[in-house]
Amino acid sequence: MIKKIEDNLNNFLLKPQFRIYRHLLLLLVSISIAMNVLWDVPDKIILTDNRIFIAVAYLATTLVMIYFNIYILVPRLLIKNKFTQYVLSAIGLVTFSLIAIVLMQEFLYDVPGISREHIIENQVKPNAHLAENDKSGSIVAVLIGVTSSIFGTALLIAGVSTFMLFRYWTINNQRISDLQSATLQSELNFLKSQINPHFLFNMLNNANIMVDEDPETASQILTKLDGMLRYQINDSMRDRVDLEEDILFLTSFLDLEKTRRDHFEYTVSNDGDLSNIQVPPLLFIPFLENAIKHNPDNNNLSYVHLYFESRNNQLTFRCENSKPANPIERKVGGLGLANIKRRLDLLYGNNYSLELNETETTYTVNLQFKV
Length: 371
Description:
- The chain folds into two domains: 2-179, no CATH class; 234-370, 2-Layer Sandwich (Heat Shock Protein 90).
- It is built from eleven helices and seven strands.
- A five-stranded mixed β-sheet has the order 2-4-5-7-6, with helices on one face.
- β4 and β5 (314-322) form a beta hairpin.
- The radius of gyration is 34 Å and the shape is elongated.
- The chain is of the alpha+beta class and 371 residues long.
- α3 runs antiparallel to α4 and α6 (128-194) crosses α11.
């Protein structure tokens, strides 16, 4: 029962489909605070034009403060650990609200039972000190109302900020959990589809055939295969790997492919400084494996061209391969394009672009993301 309540509460606080209900709840809380203007006298609601106008204006001011805090201050300052700037900005926001409310109550606030004409009339009578007492009482009432309003608004902003922090923290933890799960599953599926007995058998068989004919080539095959296995078993389990290491792995993969195909060419080129760039492991391999798997033309020349470019903290990856006369329906990396996009979404959010371009003779993948 308690678990169900917690799940329902988390769904209400975090799920996008409940967003409108969260905003309605926030609106109701803001209205309840603004309505205090209408009953600052015990057991009596004052529905004068001035009071209603002040309540509406105060509600609008409160909502502006809250949503400015939600969409500007929290994501740009608080979430980015700029606590000092956030606190100063929040104080400035509350101060602005205080000035606005004081001005509204100064010019529009009316005290029940005491009109402006009554105060002016009493000021010229002998008992003018009574009018002064009434006026002092009204000032005290205004100050109490302003103080309680500002205090309530400050608490509301603090509560909203706490909720936003909790929401960002929960979503980030869920995103990390999903990313780890997707990454592990992707790595597992990739290892199953790439380093499988059939692949190993082909490479080892090629090396065995060349032991007598070309011992040097056989040694190179085994060396590259050893490096690939070490990379996929050990280095691929890290969160980040050097891009140059990943490119070396891709090159070894292409070298091995070339040894078993007579009409196959490839290039690996780059532009910009790639030395200090780190990327998630096994990120480009599904695209390369897809390019090779769906390019089995043994009668005509087939090719794969890889290109990397680093510019202004942006990495561009392009993989272009030829298409055979009778192309095979492609599934990226054996995982499906949807899973590849899912992993990119988890890794980079909205900070990447993936384009797939196909012509009669070529298939090209263009991937860009921030590094």
